[in-house]
Write a structure and sequence with these properties.
Length: 88
């Protein structure tokens, strides 16, 4: 049968949605990222935490999740992507 969902599974899905929407912009500019972040209402990601301890646990998980995405990018892929935006 189906197991119980991971405690913070929704956060992973939100981050994946943010990344997918930003990639669609085909930009490396903060302005584009900021617009996607606002459009998806990502600032609400911290809402609903009942205690400071719960908020800290959530933030720790969020940082670990974001770090895992940063570490998973191959340097060749990142360099190739950034070359598209090199003004020279």
């Amino acid at each position: 049968g189906l197991g119980a969902p991971e405690r913070h599974e929704g956060v992973r899905l939100d981050i994946e949605g943010l990344l997918a929407a930003f990639k669609e912009k085909n930009s490396v500019r903060f302005e584009a990222f900021s617009k996607v972040f606002a459009d998806l209402k990502m600032s609400a990601i911290f809402a609903g935490r009942q205690t400071t301890a719960e908020l800290l646990e959530f933030e720790e998980h969020l940082l670990q999740l974001c770090a895992s995405y940063m570490m998973s990018v191959k340097s060749e892929d990142a360099a190739e992507f950034l070359e598209k935006f090199d003004p020279n």
